[in-house]
Amino acid sequence: MKRIDIDDDLYAYIASHTREIGESASDILRRLLDVDKTTEPAPVKPEKTKIDSVFNRLNEQDVRIQKSVVARFLYILSMLYKSHSDRFADVLDIRGRDRQYFARTEDALLSTGNSTNPKQIPDAPYWVITNTNTTKKKSMLTQVAKTLGYSSADAEKIRDFL
User: Fold this and answer.
1) Strands of the 118-120 sheet, one edge to the other
2) CA 79, CA 107: separation in Å to the nearest integer?
3) Count of alpha carbons within 13 Å of 108, Cβ hemisphere only?
4) CA distances from 115 to 38, 99, 110, 118 (A)
5) Which pTM does this prediction carry?
6) If you ran DSSP here, which 8-state letter would residue 130 be given?
7) Fewest CB within 10 angstroms: 1, 73, 147, 160, which?
């Protein structure tokens, strides 16, 4: 017989379903779950693959120690890349009216406009333009987050780190 710890409220629920004095918690659970002693245990389902989220890596304190808006922008993009490196290439499709925002090389961004000031995303094989105002950088972060599958609400949270 195995022992398990359960919360007090769950124990109270189980106890509230006692039908006779001395009925064990196991007997009550068997009745409630419609499981008898001869029933084979249900097969254990494989655990779902843990979805990596930028929120597992990104925290306000680490962002705030970055000395400039550009540094914070690059740091957030780096955390997004680390969380979603397998899909990060999708951000290459994010562009402005006249500008390409992301590329695999610095030259690719330099060739798309004047004063783009491309920087490599730390620990990533991607480059991003940085010569945009803070509002545009926030918009770019929102687009990146949505492209990587985040909800609008989570994309806003990511953007607000900037």
Assistant:
1) 102-103, 127-129, 118-120
2) 24
3) 14
4) 74, 11, 8, 9
5) 0.68
6) -
7) 1
Euclidean distance between the first and the last CA atom of the chain, given in angstroms as a whole number = 53
Read off the tokens for 127: 């480059």
Q: Which residues are CB-contacts of 74 (< 8 A; sequence separation ≥ 6)?
A: 66, 119, 121, 122, 128, 130
Side-chain-side CA neighbours of 27 within 13 Å: the count stands at 7
Task: In whole angstroms, give the CA distance from residue 102 to residue 109.
Answer: 7
Q: What is the mean predicted confidence (pLDDT) over 2-11?
A: 79
pLDDT, tens only, 31-79: 888 877 765 665 655 555 445 688 888 888 888 899 999 999 999 999 9
Burial of 91 (0-12, 13-18, 19+ CB in 10 A): buried
Q: What is the CA radius of gyration of the chain?
A: 26
Residue 152 is encoded by which pair of tokens? 């609008």
Confidence bin at 19 (pLDDT 50/70/90): confident
Query: Hey, what are 3's tokens?
Result: 């022992």
Residues 6+ apart with CB under 8 A from 124: 77, 78, 81, 82, 85, 88
